[in-house]
Amino acid sequence: MRIFFTGGSGKAGKWAIRHLQAQGHVVVNIDKQPSGLDCSELLVDLCDAGQVIGAMSQYADFHELEPGTGVPKYDAVVHFAAVPRVMIGTDGECFRQNTLSTYNVVEAAVKLGVPKIIFASSETTYGVCFADGEVKPDYVPVDEEHPTVPHDSYAMSKVCNEATGRSFQARSGADIYGLRINNVIEPHEYAENFPAFMKDPGLRRRNIFAYIDARDLGHMVDCCLKTDGLGYEVFNVSNDDMSVGITSDAVIAQFYPDVPVKRDMRPDETFYANDKAKRMVGFAPQHSWRDVL
């Protein structure tokens, strides 16, 4: 597939692009700064609607001129570009850039007839991650039916982006899938960060004691690219195990004593349920911090 990928210069985007290329996809990275990856790139301000639709409807590299058959079409759009969290700039600017860029990307894709759109939503939509003080989930494990009541501008932007995706899907009939991505971990970060998580599990409370390996996130994107006909869907994206060394029973006793537990949980099972992604798109994460530590 020829893929219009936004945000490929970021942490998650670089790993996703590498994985997609390894599966044989042709990826064009759309970002404000070069990624350093071996792929075609266009430098674009995604908050400018004209630049977005222009980038999506033009040549991306010199080799595309050779066939003499005009500008090739994109088979899919993957939208990862965003201000990645609160407290980088102002709250309002985070919200503006994330919502406007998503609207522009999805609108352009729909108007140009791109049949598959995948966008990055977030674990923060559940209102736990960036809350003022401690907010506990309504129940565990947290699945996609859990209420999304964000407390911050980043999470608000992601909830708005989900509404944008649902609305454009209803009008266009395109497949539009939102990925509620948990905390993205690169392979080298296991040895660097997880010893502290093993010593103090409370460090992972705001991430619902979960994580997603950057390589498995790329796999999830590929699963979505290969799965047609779902219309609009959102998926939690996490690895199968928790990001702490104690058991699920110990986490419940220490952090969730008054939180309803929806079902029996395995001793090391994630509290950020990924069952829907497994069932509907064939997600099968392969990596774990436990393989390193």
UniProtKB/TrEMBL annotation:
Chain ranges of the NAD-dependent epimerase/dehydratase domain: 4-195
One Pfam family hit: Epimerase
Annotated signal sequence range: none
Domain of life from the UniProt record: Bacteria
InterPro entries recorded: Epimerase_deHydtase, NAD(P)-bd_dom_sf
PANTHER family in UniProt: NUCLEOSIDE-DIPHOSPHATE-SUGAR EPIMERASE, PUTATIVE-RELATED
Protein name from the UniProt record: Nucleoside-diphosphate-sugar epimerase
Annotated source species: Yoonia sediminilitoris
